[in-house]
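Form 7-S
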Amino acid sequence: MIAVPHYISPQEYLDIERQSQIRHEYRRGLVYAMAGGTDNHDRIALNLLTLINLHLGDSKDCRFHSGNVKVHYKDDFYYYPDAFVTCDPRDRQDRYLKCYPKLIVEVLSSSTATFDQGEKFKDYQLIETLEEYVLISQERQLLECRRRNAMGIWETTIYEIGDLVTLQSIDLEFAIADLYRGID
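Output:
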């Protein structure tokens, strides 16, 4: 990600973003243009969203979103996760911004992996409703699931080829191979 090197306020960012053809993320006064994704990135995200969609069905309580809706925390950051689920009724008040996700998923790319695994995860930990943060590799069948336990401590489970993935936050299980269906 490349930052535009001058501070702008959260409101300025939101005003610009609503009119922009290009998506940008915001972190503590800096704006970052989002790079385009690969076909594998897109397919993995689509496969995951399909699994979540089929699982949630017509749920009136939980909603899932793709990378077109922002998650934010106060005015610290505004991010576009590749996928997330919110079951909090407060998230129905704004069609563009969500504050109370319980599951956030990022498909890793070479340009964003370090940020997604480090600073972005630190930011997401500020969201009290977040139960799971999932990182999915494009390079091989590998999924890292970070879960907040009852004590508030984050624990990591790694899923690899042949494993059955469990997303406890939404009570979903699937074969990891299902994520990588149609991938070269």
